[in-house]
Design brief:
Number of helices: 3
CATH topology: 2,3-Dihydroxybiphenyl 1,2-Dioxygenase, domain 1
CATH class: Alpha Beta
Radius of gyration: 15 Å
Oligomer: single chain
Number of strands: 9
Helix content: 10-25%
Number of domains: 1
Order of helices and strands: EHEEEEHEHEEE
CATH superfamily: 2,3-Dihydroxybiphenyl 1,2-Dioxygenase, domain 1
Largest sheet: 9 strands, mixed
Bound molecules: cobalt (II) ion
Shape: globular
Distance between the termini: 13 Å
Length: 134
C-alpha cells in the first residue's frame, strides 16, 4: 500500500545550527527557513537525491512539536512520511487493521498542500507515521 518515502521530519531546537549541520557538515542542499504558521512550524527542506529531510522548529503558541522538543531537548526524529495514492482507502484499510488514526480521522492539507493523516506511534513501532496522498 505505501509507496515512496516522501520525507523524514526532524524536530530541532536551533534551526540555524541544524541548517548549518546539513549544509556544511553533511554537504546537502538546504532551503531557507519557511514559516508555516498554519502548521505551527518553521521548516527547512533538505533535498536529497531520493527523498527529503524536513527540519522543524516550533512557530507560535501550541506548536505540534513543542512538547516533543521538551521531551527531546537535543531534537530528534519526529515523524516519517510515506506516500499513498488514495488516502481514504489507505485510512480505511489501516483502521480495519486496528491502527489508530490521529485527530478527526479526516485528511487535512499538509505542509505540501496535499491531504495527509497521522498514525499513532504506538501502533507503528514507536514512530509517528504521516501518510500523504500524491
Ligand atoms: Co511531514
Amino acid at each position: 500500500m505505501i509507496g515512496k518515502l516522501n520525507h523524514i521530519a526532524i524536530a530541532v531546537p536551533d534551526m540555524a545550527k541544524a541548517s548549518a549541520l546539513y549544509r556544511d557538515t553533511l554537504g546537502a542542499k538546504v532551503s531557507e527557513p519557511i514559516a508555516m504558521p498554519e502548521h505551527g512550524v518553521t521548516t527547512v527542506f533538505v533535498e536529497l537525491p531520493n527523498t527529503k529531510v524536513e527540519l522543524l522548529h516550533p512557530l507560535g503558541e501550541n506548536s505540534p512539536i513543542a512538547k516533543f522538543l521538551e521531551r527531546n531537548p537535543d531534537g530528534g526524529m519526529h515523524h516519517i512520511c510515506y506516500e499513498v495514492t488514495d488516502i481514504l482507502a489507505a485510512r480505511d484499510r489501516l483502521k480495519e487493521k486496528g491502527a489508530r488514526v490521529l485527530g478527526s480521522g479526516e485528511p487535512r492539507i499538509g505542509a505540501h498542500g496535499k491531504p495527509v493523516l497521522f498514525l499513532h506511534p504506538k501502533d507503528f513501532a514507536g514512530t509517528l507515521v504521516e501518510i500523504e496522498q500524491v
